[in-house]
Design brief:
CATH class of one domain: Mainly Alpha
CATH topology of one domain: MetI-like fold
Strand content: under 5%
Helix content: over 70%
Number of helices: 12
Order of helices and strands: HHHHHHHHHHHH
Number of strands: 0
CATH superfamily of one domain: MetI-like
Distance between the termini: 9 Å
Structural class: mainly alpha
Length: 308
């Protein structure tokens, strides 16, 4: 078990280093942000002075070395536009994004898993067909379209919910649903497939032949084995929720990391984009590591086989 965790931590560090290298060099291909920070009347001397002050006149390899050294000290640098530490900007926006992602995850798991169970247990009935249509519709609608549609119906037409920005619980409902619908469909499909696979195995048929009722069979035996694919998908879907928050936060004017990322991209504020991407990479790697640890709780045989 310890050897397995050490290997996974090593892989995580290599992944984060690879993402840091990629984002550093790719961003510099978009152009020099110095020209966006000076007025139209600025002279070439003014532009050169600002470029020197920001450090963009140094060789690229030297800039990269300084970037890695700062990263090792958990220093994400200072925003080129706002002249504020990137960590401060991210820390001020992160609670809003986490709140939105948590609400979307409740929608995704709270609706997706029960719907997947219905699809598996009553796959030939009218309820399952209705649920399948709901899943298909949720999977087909783009996030920006479902968000705009909900604003038009529930905010503009009916006036039940606020259309945008933050505030009380009512402000969180529509963004959470818009962000969680696609993940809900994914959870429903994975839960259905996993349950159907388990229900077709010999131990289930044997238990049923001995008179074990379906609810007890699901809770005590099938659910644990069927949970492994769901855990894997959960780790990936949480990362997708953070990525999808960019669109949802823009549609609903939600002041989270997604909104500040869009603003930073338009302004070519390299260091904010770097910080957000590195945060996303770290969260993704951490979630995958946690899912591997959860495997040992659900089924220790998986980790033992990987550790060999």
């Amino acid at each position: 078990m310890q050897g397995f965790l050490v290997r996974r931590l090593g892989q995580a560090l290599i992944t984060i280093l690879g993402v840091a290298t990629l984002i550093f060099f790719v961003q510099r291909l978009t152009g020099d942000p110095t020209y966006l920070l000076v007025p139209e009347t600025a002279t070439q001397a003014d532009i050169d002075a600002l470029r020197h002050a920001l450090g963009f006149d140094r060789p690229l390899i030297e800039q990269f070395g300084g970037f890695l050294a700062d990263l090792a000290r958990f220093d994400l640098g200072q925003s080129v536009v706002q002249r504020v530490p990137v960590s401060t900007i991210i820390a001020s926006r992160l609670p809003y994004t986490l709140m939105l992602a948590a609400g979307a995850l409740v929608v995704a798991i709270g609706i997706g898993v029960p719907v997947g169970v219905v699809l598996a247990l009553f796959r030939d009935g009218p309820i399952a067909k209705l649920a399948a249509g709901f899943v298909l519709a949720a999977q087909s609608m783009p996030t920006f379209w479902s968000g705009i549609l909900m604003i038009m119906i529930f905010a503009v037409t009916l006036g039940w919910l606020p259309p945008s920005s933050t505030g009380g619980f009512s402000h969180l409902i529509m963004p959470s649903i818009a962000l969680g619908l696609l993940s809900m469909a994914t959870f429903a499909r994975i839960t259905r497939a996993s349950l159907l696979d388990e229900l077709s195995k010999d131990y289930v048929r044997t238990a049923r032949s001995r008179g074990v009722r379906t609810p007890r069979l699901l809770v005590r035996h099938v659910a644990r084995n069927a949970a492994i694919p769901v855990i894997t998908v959960a780790a990936l879907e949480i990362s997708n929720l953070l990525a999808g928050a960019v669109i949802v936060e823009t549609v609903f004017a939600w002041p989270g990391i997604g909104q500040v990322t869009v603003q930073a991209i338009l302004a070519r504020d390299f260091l904010i984009v770097q910080g957000v991407v590195l945060l996303g990479a770290f969260v993704t790697v951490l979630l995958n590591l946690l899912s591997d640890i959860l495997y040992s709780v659900v089924d220790p045989r998986i980790v033992l086989e990987r550790a060999r």
